[in-house]
Amino acid sequence: MEEKVIPYKIYLEENEMPKYWYNVKADMKKKPAPLLDPKTLKPITEDELSKVFCRELVKQELNETDRFIPIPQEILDFYKMYRPSPLVRAYCLEKKLGTPAKIYYKFEGNNTSGSHKLNSSIAQAYYAKQQGLKGVTTETGAGQWGTALSMACSYFGLDCKVYMVRSSYELKPFRREVMRTYGASVTPSPSMETKIGRQINEEYPGTTGSLGCAISEAVECASEREGYRYVLGSVLNQVLLHQTVIGLETKTALDKYGIKPDVIIGCAGGGSNLGGLISPFVGEQLRGENKYQFIAVEPESCPSLSRGKYVYDYCDTGRVCPLSKMYTLGSGFMPAATHAGGLRYHGMSATLSELYDQGIMEARTVKQTEVFAAAEEFARVEGILPAPESAHAIKVAIDEARKCIETGEEKTIVFGLTGTGYFDMMSYEKFHDGVMTDYIPTDAEIEKSLEKTPKWADPQSK
Ligand SMILES: *Cc1c(COP(=O)(O)O)cnc(C)c1O
Predict the structure, then answer these.
(1) pLDDT band at residue 171, thresholds of 50, 70 and 90?
(2) Which one of 20, 98, 351, 389 has the largest count of C-beta atoms within 10 Å of its C-beta?
(3) How far is the C-alpha of 376 from the C-alpha of 232, rounded, in Å?
(4) CATH 3.40.50.1100: which residues of the chain?
(5) How far apart are CA 461 and CA 312, in angstroms?
(6) What CATH number labels 32-71+115-230?
(7) Ligand 1 centroid, distance to 148 Cα (angstroms)
(8) Other CB atoms closer than 10 Å to residue 288's CB: what's the count?
(9) Residue 114 CA: which ligand 1 atom is closest?
(10) How far does the centroid of ligand 1 lie from the alpha carbon of residue 409, in Å?
(11) What are the DSSP calls for 309-331, one per residue?
C-alpha cells in the first residue's frame, strides 16, 4: 500500500462510524460457559434472565450466533454527540521515551461522564425505555458508570437509582453530585435500605463496600419495584458488545492508513473496555486472518485473571445474580481501597476469561505507585490527565515501548485510554505526597476467599 501521511489524530468521518456492534462469541469455536440460574444451577433461560434485565439486552447477552448486531438509529444519534473518538499517535511520549515503537491510544474520555462507559449506558437506557420501564437501578464503583448511566437516563427520561461503593461515595463527592445533576438518586453501599445491605453491614462492620455488594443491593432494589430493571456497567457480554464501537472505530482508523498493530493493551476491571477494544482484532485472529498480542492489565491488588481461578462463581456478594464461569478471586473478596476503583471487581467477563484460558490473551499486574508514575509521565508530555484505571494500560504500553529501545523493534502499540482523571485528584495528591502504598493480597487471603466459590457447578473446571 502507498504510504499516506498519518495525521496526529485519526478521526473518522461520521459515515465511517460503525452501524453494528460486533459479537465476538460468534467467532469463538469454544464459547464462554453459559450463565447459571442461582436456584436451579442450570443454564439460565431467557425468561428467567428477563426478570432482572431488559428483554432485548437479555437476547444480546445470550446471542452466540449473530456476528453483527445492528445499532438502533436513536443510539447512533446519541453516539454522534461524542463519537467518533480520536485515535491519537503519542508522538511526544515516543520522543520522550526515545523508543522506535509507534504508540497509539484510543481516547474515550471526551464526554462529560469522562469514560467509555457511556457507550453502553446509552444502549441500556434505550432498551429499558423501549420496554416501557419506569427506571433502572445499578451499582457504581469509582462513579464513572453511575455518571454515564445518569446521563443516559436523563436523555431518555428514565428514573435512575445508583448504589455507590461507600469508599468512593466518601472519597469522590464530586462524581456523586454530577450524578445528582443528571437527576439520579445516589445511596452509599452497603446501605441500610436493603436486606443484603443490612446483612453485610452486620457481618463486616465499618466496611467501605465493594462492587459485588453494591450489585446485590441494586438487584434487590430492582426486583422489589414495579417497572424497574437492573443494569450493569461491565462484565456482561452485552456490555462488552456495546463497547465494541471502540475496537471497530480503532480498526477502521488503522485500516484507513494501512497500520497493523502488533500489541493491543487495555486495563481490565470487569473487562468491557478491553473486550470492546480487542474484539474485532480477536475475531480476525480466530478466523486465522491475522495475529496480534493482546495484554490485559490488572491492579496487583485485584488480580482476577493473573491469580484467580477459572470456575463458576457468584457475580455479587449477595449471590442473587446468575453464576458465571470466569476468572475470579471469590465473590467475598474485599479488595483494598485502591485508587483505581473501576478495577476492583472480583471477577472478569466470561468472554475475556475464556479467551485468556485459551491463551489468546495474556495478563499482567502492575503496582499502583508505578501506575501513577506512568500517568504523570504521560500527562506531562501528551497533555491528557488520565484516569487511574486507564493509567494501568499506559504503564504497560510504556513498558513495551521501553523494551523496543533494547531490541530495536519498531512495534506498533495500541492502547485504550478509557477516561480522564479530573475526579481522582485526591489519589494523585496521595501519590505526590508520597503516602500512596502498594497492596498485594497474600496467597492465603486469595485462597480463603476462593474457598467460597461453588465447587459443584463446574464439571470442566481445571
Ligand atoms: C470502569 C472503568 C474501567 C474498567 O472497566 P472495564 O469494564 O474493565 O472496562 C476502566 N477505565 C475507566 C476510566 C473506567 O471508568
Answers:
(1) confident
(2) 389
(3) 31
(4) 10-16+82-114+237-442, 32-71+115-230
(5) 8
(6) 3.40.50.1100
(7) 12
(8) 7
(9) 13
(10) 30
(11) EEEEEESSTT--SPEEEEEES-T
- Written as nine digits, the cell of 280 is 474485532
- Outline where DSSP puts E strands in 210-291: 228-230, 263-267
* Residue whose C-alpha cell is 495484554: 295
**Start-to-end C-alpha separation, the chain:** 46
User: What are the pLDDT digits (tens) for 277-316?
Assistant: 999 999 999 999 999 999 999 999 999 999 999 999 998 8
Q: For residues 83 and 42, give the distance between their C-alpha atoms in angstroms, rounded to a whole number.
A: 40
User: What pLDDT score was predicted for residue 6?
Assistant: 82
Ligand 1 touching residue 167 (CB < 6 A): no
Q: Which ligand 1 atom sits nearest the alpha carbon of residue 233?
A: 7
- The reply to whether ligand 1 has any atom less than 6 angstroms from the CB of 117 is yes
Nearest to 296 by CA among 322, 324, 317, 327: 327
15-20: long-range contacts at Cβ-Cβ below 8 A with a sequence spacing of 24 or more?
16/84, 16/252, 16/256, 17/76, 17/79, 17/80, 17/83, 17/84, 17/245, 17/249, 18/71, 18/244, 18/245, 18/248, 18/249, 18/252, 19/70, 19/71, 19/76, 20/68, 20/69, 20/70, 20/71, 20/248
Q: What is the pLDDT of residue 2?
A: 57
CATH topology of domain 10-16+82-114+237-442: Rossmann fold (3.40.50)
Q: Which three cell numbers stand for residue 313?
A: 462463581
Do 330 and 346 meet the contact criterion of CB atoms below 8 Å apart? yes
Q: What is the pTM of this model?
A: 0.95
Q: What is the spatial distance between Cα 316 and Cα 139, in angstroms, rounded to a whole number?
A: 11
pLDDT tens column, 87-142: 999 999 999 999 999 999 999 999 999 999 999 999 999 999 999 999 999 999 87
- Name the residue of 106, 115, 302 to mutate for ligand 1: max ligand atoms within 8 A of Cβ: 115
Cα 40 to ligand 1 centroid, rounded to whole Å: 32
Closest ligand 1 atom, residue 390 Cα:
11
What gap in Å lies between CA 222 and CA 174, rounded to an integer? 26
Rg (CA), the chain: 21
Q: Is the pLDDT at 38 greater than 70, yes or no?
A: yes
Out of 234, 297, 338, 356, mutate this one to test ligand 1's pocket (max ligand atoms within 8 Å of CB): namely 234
Residue 362's closest CA among 411, 387, 407, 327?
327
Query: Which residues, including other chains, have CB under 8 Å from residue 299's CB and lie 6 or more apart?
Result: 338, 340, 343, 344, 365, 366, 368, 371, 392
Residue 136 pairs with which residues in a beta bridge? 160, 229
